[in-house]
Design goal:
The strands form four sheets. A three-stranded mixed beta sheet has the order 1-2-3. Strands 4-6 form a two-stranded antiparallel ribbon. It has a two-stranded antiparallel sheet with strand order 5-7. By secondary structure, it is mainly alpha-helical. The protein is flat, with a radius of gyration of 46 Å.
Length: about 1450
Amino acid sequence: MVSKRRRLDSENRETVTEDASKIMKQPLSKLARKSYDSHEVEENGSIFVRLLKTSGLTLKTGENQNQLGVDQIIFQRKLFQALRKHPSYPKIIEEFVNGLESYIEDCDCLRNCLLSCERLQDEEASTGTFYSKSLIKLLLGIDILQPAIIKMLFEKVPQFLFENESNDGINMSRLIINQLKWLDRIVDSKDLTAQMMQLISVAPLNLQHDFITSLPEILVDSQHANVGKELSKLLAQNTSLTVPILDVFSSLRLDSNFLSEIRQLVMGKLSSVQLEDLPVIVKFILHSVTDTTSLEVISELREKLNVQHFILPSRVQASQSKLKSKGLASSSGNQENSDKDCVLLVFDVIKSAIRYEKAISEAWIKAIERIESVTEHKALDVAMLLIIYSTSTQTKKGSEKVLRNKIQSGCIQEQLLEGTFSTHYMVLKDICPSILLLAQTLFHSQDQRIILFGSLLYKYAFKFFDTYCQQEVVGALVTHVCSGNEAEVDTALDVLLELIALNPSAMRLNAVFVKGILDYLETMSPQQIRKIFCILSTLAFSQQPGTSNHIQDEMHLVIRKQLSSTVFKYKLIGIIGAVTMAGIMAEDRSVPSNSTQRRADLSSEWCTQVTSLLQLVHSCTEHSPWASSLYYDEFANLIQERKLAPKTLEWVGQTIFNDFQDAFVVDFCAIPEGDFPFPVKALYGLEESSTQDGIVINLLPLFFQEFAGVSQMTSQESSQKSMSSLCLASHFRLLRLCVARQHNGNLDEIDGLLDCPLFLPDLEPGEKLESMSAKERSLMCSLTFLTFNWFREVVNAFCQQTSPEMKGKVLSRLKDLVELQEILEKYLAVIPDYVPPFANVDMDTLDMIPKSSSAVSTKNRNKGKMGGRKQKADISKASSTETLLTEDTSECDTVTSGRSPVEKVLEYVTKESAGKEGKTFVSLQNYHAFFRELDIEVFSILHSGLVTKFILDTEMHTEATEVVQLGPAELLFLLEDLSQKLENVLTPSFAKRLCFLKNKGNRNIGFSHLHQRSVQDIVHCVVQLLTPMCNHLENIHNYFQSLGAEHLSVDDKPRVKAQEQHTMSSCYQKLLQIFYTLFAWKGFTHHSNLHLLHSALEVLTSRLKQTEQEQPLEELISQSFNYLQNFHHCIPNFQCGLYLLRLLMTLLEKSAAPTQKKEKLATLAKQLLCRAWPHGEKEKNTNFNDHLHDLLCIYLEHTDNVLKAIEEIAGVGVPELVNAPKDASSSTFPMLTRHTFVIFFRVMMAELEKTVKSLQAGTATDSQQVHEEKLLYWNMAVRDFSILINLMKVFDSYPVLHVCLKYGRHFVEAFLKQCMPLLDFCFRKHREDVLSLLETLQRNTRLLHHLCGHSKIHQDTRLTKHVPLLKKSLELLVCRVKAMLVLNNCREAFWLGTLKNRDLQGEEIVSQHLSSPESTSEDSESGMTSHVSRDRATQDGEDEASDGQKDQDNDESDDSSD
């Protein structure tokens, strides 16, 4: 049979040709061969045809293949011998080539010669199937024919350069060049190279690509350099050939310098190349990188590689919409897919290089790490860090470390991360598991900024990735929620809430995973339980009718089960869950006119469910004051946060109004009935009305009934009792929020509750306190707490009312609160074991619930009588709340182990309140958990100035007017509460972690309402209060300024005047503390919060001058600094001065050029140190030592000359202290006393060591002037060190000696590292200075050696643990001095001696006296040798032997001490 020709592919020419021959039919039979004879080419006298036939190859005509009857090697050998042995050799070669040239004039013949030959061989003789070369290929393998045939081929190629492919797909130009590939030997490689390059220069673009890529297969290695140079020229001329040329470069053996040049050339064109060429270019750049050039190349590649430039925003949006529509075709699908494929190829190339080349991944990390400016960071940087983290196992930790550092420094903001995901989402989707793993790792961090970044990774992975990745994100977040780590749980729940708002439909698909959290509610805090039910309720009651019904059913089951539980923890879960779910169901979903009737019916059905659910909660909580109070507070928070449907809100408002009025409000004329231990009066009323038609809060009758009658009440009566008075404040909070929501904030409907009195006994104890029984004290104290909390809620309610009359009444209630505080302090001082009535049930720990067992005395608790068993206590020693809750705790059995936080608080209060003479002092701050929380809106009262209050007669005519203003005591009350709130919310996260080993929620008790607001919202509210706070700050400053500096001491003032000054001083301190806490908030570093910082600084700046145009941040900081520093003139106490300094430091931290103001800070700090503060200042403040330490650090850190400042304190202030009487202080530094000396000494030693460590070591290249300046600096440092070390002879207490051992070693080590290299260069030119320096240091190190001996003799392990390291440093100093002398050719001046062990006073330690008989002579010789060495060094003129000798004396003294 006739074998068919195989079609040749243009991209795989040689291989396809070979394959075509391989799959041809097996050798033909003899019969078949006879049939081909008619197609043979006739000789016609052609020596070319005859020699081929003689050698075993038969030429064929037409489409028939040339037949090769012998093996290819045999054919070539026969033809070579025939040519060589021919009589006309070498002329025969020319005739043979001419014959070939004449034969291939015909295109069919040329094609036959270029295609493979047919093997003509008997099947019996066949040893296998072999590839047959073409005739031209066989002839090129004969050396004597090769040059001529190559020349002929190159002459033939131009004929076919511009011809199209034939019908059978064969391109003659490519076919001719293919003959030159993989030749066994090239006779004239240089000529071949020249002809190839010439052909490439004239060929069309499509063939240029093919010819260039064929060069490595044609040329020999010796021509690679020449070809590289030619191709580089071509590359510079023609950008379209970049890809094939770079592809060839990777296959050629080229010099590294040449590749570097090419890389620079290509890098310059990187921003202008086509996207489809980018993968090859990037691959070449990365493959040409060496270890030494990797960082430079990657840095440049990072700057110029801008993949985002190739992806248009419209295409990105189209991609996202395509992704979300599950593969629906878009209008620009083909171009979009092509671009995406190219981008993916680019990153595949990068990932491959990173995976296999550690140098590239490390270089990329370093390149990103070196970027300092926030604006210089690109989306590519974030993407590369994520890719390296997922791809390179060797540099995984390195990439994570850089990422953390960038997050902490604020270089990677949320906008940049979102841009990264939106641009490179196709690339990042492939590494989704690694991204989720990284997010999980970041969640375990202690830095809130890093945790936030981890949450953003989850958020954007959910937003931009496909359904599978979304499911993985939700699963990972649920795992975090169930982990038990408080920070993880809070952050993960916040992310889930964001995801629901971001893509509700996608979250509904994963609702089954979220539902699993219900099994872990027991370990959650109330705030976390709130978020969980909010998430599930939002998923269950979505706006799409009929969806997520299985979640609704399960939530109803869980809530009903928890509400019916008798364990309070579970009942709390049920209450929070029910109220939260009711809020979602009853949320105002205004039904549009065009909506379906089904949705309207569904909303109506949900309203019915809400009503029944709330009734269920009320019935399950009405018998427990704890549960009822929690229910009211939860519902109040819900109404405050969400807008409920009008129908539901109306029903709730009416029900709450009626219940409150029936339970707590009675007519003024109603006389309370009961056997009360004290007379009942209507107290604290603000309206002096003669009529009896007013209302009164029926507090005492309600509370006394519960307090005294609970033990006699039967279970049946207890089930029918009225609402507990303990729910008064929480019920009123719910009532006023309902009214405010219904009437747009107007509270006229309930304004009578603001000024109405309460039925109470006279709470002021007076002289009756001592005669009261314990039960009566407990009753009065509980009533005072309830009244106090009632007024706090009243102020919460009416603080934002605008009428002057209401404002005046609010200020009056504020004065009542201040008075009640004083009364509370009196009662608590005589009832140390008292547990107040609960105020906040919604707290982060349920252990705060008092039980009857918590009333045992402090003595019994200390004996260990505590735990879960209930103990009977005398009602005279038990609080009213405990007695009242006997029933509650039996119903709601809460099991605890050990002491509850209440007991711990009370024990702490007891310990703190014991005075020197048995007098008891009480701080109400320790009881803040038992006070109702003030809302952040209350502080709008700070805006109040003078308010005119009108007193009306019975006919509503003005009878009198009264001017009310915010007094100092009321101002202090507000500022203390605001300060506590800001400390809780704005302090760094590490401060919150201090509660880990204690009760995790203790720090947040009493701030539950505050934590339901965002930190940014709280900061915004405080910024709005800056103007009135500045007014108060200036007024207080003027108050003290008017007194004069000589009147600041309150010792000799009348008691009333002294109390007023003390209150004003406390207000001053609290204002500065609030300012400091606000401006120290770390959140200002976040880009989204910069506007808050600008607003705050603008308020301070406006106090100096009014500016209409917006000022830059730096100018605002400078003006604010100038404004605040003006307050230092009349600082009333030491703590105010410290807070002012901290505030100024905080402002400077936000400045780009803080050095201009640093010296001012140092001056202010020194003024505080040199000021004599009022007597008793130290005793009043328990943190005085810490504050003094901070002040000294501020002074020494900001002064321009630390050494001079240390010398002034140690050289002037301390001698004054030594010479002063026992209880006196230094005259220059009044803060320096014998009690505070240790603080001064520790700070000075630490700052001295820090200062010398920061000084750079000298080098030989430094100028002479630099050497002299550094030598002078070290002389001052050693002199200061000498002064400080010698002080231990006078002050030899343990703290001083410990500081000497610790920082003495650090100073010697710094001297070795920083100063000794300097002495190496300065020894010759500054001989005397170096000598003096070492002599001074020698005396100090001898004292350190004496201190080591002292520590061992006294066997003080606290000191001896520092001795080995110190002696090691002293020995190193000896060796280093010797090395310096050797370097300066003065080795003979160094000699070694032995010092005796002595104590601090220089007395010899007797334990060595007998073991060292020669020590006396050695010691005396030591003193002589110093002088001799100095003389010798002076006579030689070479070097200082004295310094080496003296230094070695001091350090070698420790050999015989052991």
